[in-house]
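Supplementary Methods S3. Input chains for the assembly prediction are listed below.
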Amino acid sequence: MHAFLSAILVILALGVSTARASGPAQFPDSSLYQVETDWQRDDGKTMRLAELRGRVRVVSMFFTGCQNLCPMLMGQLKSLERSLPADLKKRVGFVMVSMDVKDDTPDALRKYRKESALSPENWILLRGSADDTRELAALLGVHYTPKQEDGQIGHTGVIAILDREGRIVYKVTGITDQNAFLAELTRNANPEH
Amino acid sequence: MAALAAPQGMAFMPGGEFALPFRGDTAEVRMRVAPFYLDTRAVTQAEYGSFLRTHPGYRRSRIKRLFADKAYLGNWKDDATPPVRALNSPVTHVSWYAAKAYCSEAGKRLPTTAEWEWAAQTLPKGMDSAGFKDSILSWYARPTGDVPGGTGSGSENGYGIRDLFGLVWEWTSDFDAFGFTGFNQRGVGDSGAFCGSGSTRATKDADYATYMRWAFRLSLRPDYTVSSLGFRCARHRDEKGF
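Predicted structure tokens for the full assembly:
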């Protein structure tokens, strides 16, 4: 019994030392998850992009006060979500990052989640600092203007698919071909991919 | 009073408002700038070298390809040695990502384009408006060597900020924010979003040098590095994390 316990302890110790030796999580060179910035979620908790690892992610940027492009993009994303087969839905997650770092507080994001009926299982709403948001936008290829006097932000409507390791594998400006988008999503979310 | 309280190496810039050098869909677009602090000089090679000692992930051999192109710090002798005799020169061959990281580690941030342009509008000491424009254009026309001159050797604006012109171009936090067909146009697709300077419309009063800077910024990619592009950092008067 003691020998058995010792063996387990040795294995555990080895496991720990291996984890330490490898240091912080390793990601491929082109992975966005290498960005070490902190993000606030609408539930008030803070997270890092590395925590998105493991699921295929559909990522886009928006802001809650957006009156033009975002409602259309959100409509496309929700339509896409509805079209996902149940098994795929569990392997895909939607991540929406706000460009309005000043006014999209966790409270505002929470209200938006409720109004847009976004399930906590499939949708993550994030807000970061001004510069960290700019950085993520740069990586995604999203351009946006400073907030204008009428409260609007001019921006491009990029929607990206990130594979399980955080690499951009597909990028469109608005979903004009839902079937093609879905096919790309299915391919990347396939456990054998 | 606020000017006296500026952090070391920074100068206080009062807030203000100015018109962009290009029009939106219908009318001129005015930018408002809140009071802020700006580094009086660009970040030097020596300062960047210190940063690399404590942040090895940003050394030439270690930086992730995602964050800088292959020319990153291309004029350095090795991973930790800046070009000879250039310690006081602005660091160049740095990407936007690296510049952002540097400022963030210093408890600062990159200035916004509006802040930078606002600071650049004040006339240098002892120069009138026409002479100022001429001096900028003649600098833009001059090819940059591989190593720029020392910081502090250029002109000083009325607030003690030096070398906004004459040494290097500088990164801003939102350098790519204005790459739309029209500033006020919303919901544009990427097909229309990258026409850049050719499709924006200069305002009647815009001076060519200013317009050229906006156009130059639009041509940049965040991982791009070149010998004529450096940066300096800024700080809001009451900076907050989120």
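The interface with chain A takes residues 31, 64-66, 96-97, 100, 103-104, 109-110, 112, 114, 173-174, 176-180, 183-191, 193, 222, 241-242 of chain B (CB under 8 Å). Confidence is low (pLDDT under 50) at residues 181-199 of chain B.
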